[in-house]
């Protein structure tokens, strides 16, 4: 794998592509609740859709980056030392646009190469079997692949973005129907039996049926099922959404960390940075070793 040093220092930060899942997992486990999505993406089913980078110095890895494949913009997750994040975004992970997730003290590093849109902070919440509080509701039912069309109607998804039946079958989805109509649902983004983590998501109640506790009920049903196979479940919620925060707290979810999840656009064209990297690597630039 090609490497690029960012200075002549003996402890220079080096960014490189990596497919070493053991190395990546070891670093991400330093904060497994914040890195829950990334840890789940190390499983075989998701790993083929991802691209990873590791930044290291003389003492070992200092940062990790993940880019999920697909139609732009796709998620980019960054964790670790700001200098390492800067190196990763300059030399390895360089999409034109992405939804970048970083901790607040890493925004400056990401902003070196990307212009981040303004927006509210996100709250990563978590629960486990000890914390979880059940929210019983007789109206909640488990959904399966045959419910995918109703889910897509509820979520307002069209042909450009839709939830395939397989995703419902392989995930955990619960819903509430009123007179046969699906009016509330919750599900999962990703589940890892290896990491024993799951990410709850796709929580929505139709506007005509809000304020009745339906979102809490379906989220509780999903969480209870997940905790039968996972040590912890996590979810994201906007910091400016107190009703949702309170609903999840009633289920035993607690705040772990606040982070930035912003639409980001590349400042410098990736091709020009690639040329600069090649010059540094082969001795044509000031920073060549």
Notes on the protein architecture:
The protein has ten helices and 14 strands. By secondary structure, the protein is α+β, with helices and mostly antiparallel strands. It has two domains: 3-122 and 261-281, Aminopeptidase (3-Layer(aba) Sandwich); 132-252, Aminopeptidase, CATH 3.40.630.30. Strands 1, 2, 3, 4, 5, 6, 7, 8, 9, 10, 11, 12, 13 and 14 form a 14-stranded mixed sheet that branches. The longest helix is centred in the last third of the chain and has 13 residues, at 214-226. It is globular and about 60 Å long. The chain starts with a strand and ends in an 8-residue tail after the last helix. 41% of the residues are buried. The model is unreliable at 4-10 and 284-289 (pLDDT under 50).
